[in-house]
Design brief:
By secondary structure, this protein is mostly helical. The protein has 13 helices and no strands. It has one domain.
């Protein structure tokens, strides 16, 4: 009951925020700016989007292959997109944890810790990019110092996550949770500093492509200002951590308009570029991810089928 009420409140807030934003911008201005978009740059953005999905899959596949021993590209691809489909409607994208549901049943618990590692590294890189944005936009060294401390702590946590899981196993009273933490710790124990460092490098590459993708969208709308995009993008993406509206709708675009205005970029361009970036790089892969839910029952059924066949 409480969950349903919370969901209803979030839907109402989303409608109100998006409605107010559209009322302020006027849909006519948004549509006019979109109608004038350069198709060449839009096509380039789509190609970059495909490359980003491939790179995102590669860094997840390498983690799973090393820690869990699953080498099937199809299975890890389904896991990635399926997790994105769930994450798109969950606060702060916690639905990414559902990736493990698309993996072999007997290895899901071990893979659970990998999702945390992958998302933590994403957060670390985003904070590094955001730190540069804070310094350029606000020239606030105290906030920069705070972000730097958070990044250092998260880096330490990633490379020592197995230790934290073992400590958690000693603290929690539930045997079921203890078993889950123990399995996750087993999977993480197979990752060396090289694998973690490689994932960090791939994440930096992925985030750089994300910045380039937003730049090509802004460029398609007639604005050529890479500096603005490079420093505004990570700050916009950090709004995804705020579980205020569904999938950050309205909040992300409002933040974009506010920050881009410091670089004399119009509200219509900022709104269109940010919303299209969300559609191309988040919503579209998530929609494709729904396709893999059809195979989820098969994966879940395999243990029972094997059990029945052995009786």
């Amino acid at each position: 009951m409480r969950l349903q009420s919370s969901r209803s409140i979030k839907i109402v807030i989303t409608v109100v925020v998006v409605g107010l934003l559209l009322f302020k911008l006027q849909p006519k201005n948004i549509l006019t700016a979109f109608a004038q978009a350069d198709l060449y740059w839009l096509a380039l953005t789509l190609l970059i989007g495909v490359a980003m999905v491939g790179l995102r899959w590669l860094k997840w596949h390498l983690l799973v292959r090393k820690a869990v021993g699953i080498t099937s590209p199809k299975q890890t691809f389904a896991s990635l997109l399926g997790g994105m489909a769930v994450a798109i409607v969950t606060p702060a994208r916690v639905g990414e944890l559902s990736r493990v549901a698309f993996l072999k049943s007997n290895r899901r618990a071990e893979a659970g810790g990998l999702v945390v590692v992958d998302r933590f590294i994403d957060l670390i890189v985003m904070l590094i990019f955001a730190a540069a944005g804070v310094l350029v936009l606000f020239q606030d060294f105290s906030l920069l110092a705070l972000l730097s401390l958070i990044v250092c702590f998260l880096l330490f946590t990633i490379f020592k996550l197995k230790l934290f899981l073992q400590l958690g196993k000693e603290i929690v009273p539930s045997k079921r949770i203890k078993d889950l933490l123990d399995a996750a710790s087993t999977g993480l124990g197979r990752l060396s500093s090289f694998e973690l460092g490689l994932n960090l490098f791939l994440t930096v590459s992925l985030t750089s492509l994300d910045v380039i993708s937003l730049h090509t969208l802004v460029r398609s709308l007639g604005v050529d200002n890479f500096k603005a995009v490079a420093f505004v993008y990570p700050l916009i993406m950090l709004t995804n951590l705020l579980p205020i509206t569904i999938s950050g709708l309205g909040v992300r675009e409002s933040t974009s308009i506010l920050l881009f205005s410091k670089f004399a970029v119009s509200s219509a361009v900022a709104f269109n570029a940010t919303f299209l970036s969300y559609v191309i790089n988040s919503l579209t892969p998530a929609i494709f991810g729904i396709y893999f839910f059809r195979g989820l029952k098969v994966v879940n059924a395999k243990p029972s089928e094997n059990h029945n066949s052995s009786v």
